[in-house]
Design goal:
Shape: globular
Structural class: alpha/beta
Largest sheet: 7 strands, mixed
CATH class of the largest domain: Alpha Beta
Helix content: 25-40%
Strand order of the largest sheet: 7-6-8-9-10-14-15
Order of helices and strands: HEHEHEHEEHEHEHEHEHEHHHEEEEEH
Radius of gyration: 21 Å
Length: 425
């Protein structure tokens, strides 16, 4: 096993941990550009930069094996950055700039409200200009509506949506009999609202004995002091908090909870990164639970090698934010482009992408053609001190990592869709 592990690590390190100079050795041919429209300034800039690192790493993998294999010759993948400043109007302006720059592949994820605006704009653009159609690949915007009522032939989601993530968390909450009351708190926009709505629905179905001690939404990205919110949570007597908060809104919330001495659990969508574990410290051990498509401590030599290769590529602790789904997204796009034989006919590429099935380092998934919702396994982890059983790797050099306590297969995670997709002639 050790020999196998070393071989896997060595091969992945060669293929994935490329120095910056590797760009100069990209295959000949015009680059296929991917426009990343994300907040690269403002309160959530750190999440945008973290996404960028993931996407760059994914494209480096494709380029290291020769780039996209197309009839006219191999072509490299390149990520182009467009700053939305965390605002919908800026994102739409960035989309127009990307289209003017000739980009036909757009990726975004760090806001469901922005994703909804981009879907509407891309639908209209593709109808007006069929010769310059655009595909939208979504890696993190998880409002369920995006692959239900607002589903689009031109939009593909690679993250599990909020209802799927909540169902995974509920697998743990269902068995957590210590929890008799919960406090629901989230960001006041479409995703945050969807999380709290689904939390209430699933609690009613699976834990009707649990009381909801609080139900609160707060402005997204504008709260600097969460102490009043934390004080209300503590005063409510709730044994647990359920939140979909992400970025600074999550980090500041858990910091405030620590300051007021709240000792309940946090059931989170994103509590495993971006400063949250370090903010909670020892107070989070055994109490911060997170759901994800993958965690660094998922058992297996291939998973371990995948994570170590990312850390070799981005060794700074602050850069430790890796998502398997973003890697699978780029692999699926590369597969679809190569199978369709074109990087310009978006109808042909979409036709291949909606049937994509990809695997990487022991993880994988498939796109569901009916609604363009990626189907993949999910895991739930609990925060522990690094070095404890099941916690070989910590997060962001914090000394805390997440031990996997529940693994949910893709078949178990799958939920029905109400999508009625309009397809191009």
């Amino acid at each position: 096993m050790r020999i196998f592990r070393r071989q896997v690590l060595k091969s992945l390190a060669v293929a994935l941990a490329l120095p910056a100079a590797a760009w100069a050795q990209s295959p000949a041919g015009t680059p296929v550009k991917i426009a990343m429209i994300e907040g690269l300034s403002g309160p959530f800039a750190n999440t945008g930069e973290a996404v960028y690192r993931n996407l760059v790493w994914a494209t480096e993998r494709v380029n290291a094996r020769g780039g996209l294999k197309l009839p006219g010759g191999n072509r490299p993948l390149v990520i182009e950055r467009y700053d939305s400043k965390g605002q919908n109007e800026e994102a739409l302006s960035a989309l127009r700039s990307a289209i003017d720059d000739g980009v036909q592949f757009v990726v975004q994820g760090n806001s469901s409200a922005t994703a909804a605006a981009l879907i509407d704009a891309i639908n209209k653009h593709n109808e007006r200009e069929p010769g310059r159609r655009v595909l939208f690949l979504n890696y993190s915007a998880v409002d369920p509506i995006l692959t239900n009522e607002k589903c689009s032939f031109w939009h593909f989601r690679f993250d599990a949506h909020a209802d799927m993530r909540m169902a995974a968390l509920m697998e743990v909450i269902r068995d957590d009999r210590v929890v008799k009351s919960v406090y629901l708190i989230g960001q006041d926009y479409s995703f945050g609202q969807a999380v709290l709505r689904e939390a209430k629905r699933q609690l009613g179905a699976q834990r009707p004995d649990v009381q909801i001690a609080g139900d609160e939404l707060h402005p997204m990205g504008r709260v600097k002091d969460f102490l009043p919110y934390a004080a209300k949570i503590k005063a409510s007597g709730a044994q647990a908090v359920i939140t979909g908060n992400w970025g600074n809104d999550l980090t500041l919330l858990v910091k405030a909870a620590k300051e007021v001495g709240y000792d309940g659990k946090f059931y989170t969508f994103y509590g495993n990164a971006l400063g949250a574990p370090a903010a909670m410290g020892d107070a989070g051990i055994g109490r911060v639970i997170a759901v994800a498509d993958w965690l660094p401590n998922v058992p297996g030599a291939q998973s371990e090698a995948f994570y170590q290769s990312f850390r070799a590529r981005f060794p700074k602790p602050a850069d430790d934010y890796v998502h398997m789904r973003m890697q699978l997204m780029v692999e699926a796009l590369a597969q679809a482009i190569e199978k369709s034989g074109t990087a310009t006919n978006m109808t042909a590429v979409a036709g291949q992408l909606e049937n994509a099935a990809v695997n990487l380092s022991g993880q994988g998934g498939r796109m569901r053609a009916s609604d363009h919702q990626f189907q993949q396994a999910l895991v739930v982890g609990v925060m522990e001190r690094q070095g404890m059983p099941g916690v070989r790797f910590d997060v962001e050099g914090s000394g805390y990592g997440f031990r996997v306590i529940k693994q949910i297969s893709a078949a178990q995670a799958e939920l029905p869709s109400s999508c009625r997709m309009a397809r191009p002639a």
